[in-house]
Design goal:
alpha/beta; 3-stranded antiparallel sheet; 11 helices; about 15% strand
């Protein structure tokens, strides 16, 4: 099973909605509830409506850590959201975190006791140089009334670099401290640079390594880490920039241990850079063909003038969709020993 992290933006929603059914069976998304938004009945219903359309039959994790709920009246907003998700016939596992307040944890405890959900996951990450320890995790799970063996651990390493051996040792130490009795242990990480302009020149084709894949495959060589499942931030950087994108267009394509990226230049009026960039992707030997995924089909169609040029959101869908399809197959083959 593959566990991609999605911020639930429109482009990512489209990437999920366009997945084939066989790919869906190998994916369990980790969704961050949209941040910096007002919590309202309309917002909850909108999330549920889009989830029904996009998630299809996939179970998913939901992190509501940024849900504004300090001044709620009556039922806690998290409990309301969970109830609406359940009424939409979706299978959701709520995520708890060390920075959740007691009111939020109480809402999750109520969701479990009311059988609105049957499992929880705890997501841990380093804050100010400190990783939560076993006792912290145990206390949180006890508070919500969840047994460790029935709960999932999401170890979020955030943005990583290429220090693979050192990071394997770090992961081994963290897992040794947090234990290995969880129902699932998922390692989540990302490495695609936010400053691609410093890695890929304008009007060129280049590549950047998938450090998270290299870390997971290396970690699996350690007998004590073979149980860890793979998760990533797809083709999106871990830390999103607050400013609107004003740079050159690019097309990202996922390979075994890297991304190949076709980058253009700052747009000029009337030109169609996307077709040129798509052609560059189609010309690489590793291009998998138009029938591999929705994203591959769109890249091929744009390269041949059958579709496009498309907007930024549509190209997020294309980038993420081809990545999800490829990595789901890659993880399945790895776990099957192929």
């Amino acid at each position: 099973m593959y566990y991609p992290l999605l911020r639930w933006k429109e482009g990512e929603q489209g990437a999920l909605e366009s997945l084939s059914l066989p790919t869906c069976r190998n994916i369990t998304p980790i969704i961050d509830f949209p941040i910096n938004c007002d919590f309202s009945a309309r917002r909850v219903q909108n999330f549920c409506d889009t989830a029904v359309e996009c998630i299809q039959s996939m179970p998913f994790y939901l992190d509501m850590g940024d849900l504004p709920c300090n001044e709620h009246i009556g039922e806690h907003p998290a409990l309301t959201l969970i109830r609406n998700v359940r009424e939409s016939n979706l299978t959701m596992i709520p995520i708890v975190r060390p920075d959740n307040d007691n009111a939020f944890l109480t809402a999750i405890q109520q969701a479990l006791s009311q059988r609105l959900v049957s499992k929880v996951a705890i997501r841990v990450f380093e804050e100010e140089g400190v990783m939560p320890n076993y006792q912290t995790v145990r206390t949180i799970l006890d508070t919500v009334g969840a047994a460790i063996e029935d709960s999932d651990l999401i170890l979020d390493l955030k943005e990583i670099d290429g220090r693979t051996e050192a990071q394997v040792r770090e992961v081994s130490w963290i897992i040794g401290d947090l234990g290995n009795s969880y129902r699932n242990t998922i390692m989540l990480a990302g490495s695609i640079p936010g400053d691609l302009w410093n890695h890929i020149s304008e009007d060129s084709l280049g590549s950047v390594p998938r450090h998270e894949w290299q870390l997971w495959t290396r970690a699996r060589q350690n007998q004590g880490l073979r149980h860890i499942q793979y998760g990533d931030y797809t083709t999106v950087q871990v830390f999103l920039m607050d400013t609107p994108f004003q740079g050159s267009p690019r097309v990202k394509y996922t390979l075994d241990s890297s991304w190949v990226i076709a980058r253009g230049h700052r747009p000029r009026s009337g030109e169609n850079q996307r077709q040129t960039l798509a052609r560059r992707i189609c010309q690489i030997p590793e291009f998998r063909g138009l029938n591999y995924s929705y994203g591959d089909e769109r890249i091929h169609g744009c390269a041949n003038g059958e579709w496009g040029p498309g907007n930024g959101g549509q190209w997020v869908t294309i980038d993420v969709n081809q990545h999800l399809t490829f990595v789901a197959n890659q993880v399945s083959s790895t776990l099957a020993g192929i």
